[in-house]
Amino acid sequence: MGHREDLLEGAKRCLLEKGFARTTARDIVKESGTNLASIGYHYGSKDALLAQAYVTLVEELSGAFEGGGADERPGELPGGPGSLERFRAVWANVVATMREPGSLWRLSMEIVVMGDQLPGVRDELARAQREGSRGFVSLLMGVPEEEVTDATADTLGSFYTTLMLGLIAQWTFDPKTAPDADALTEGLRQVVEGAANR
Question: For residue 120, what pLDDT is reported?
Answer without folding.
Answer: 67
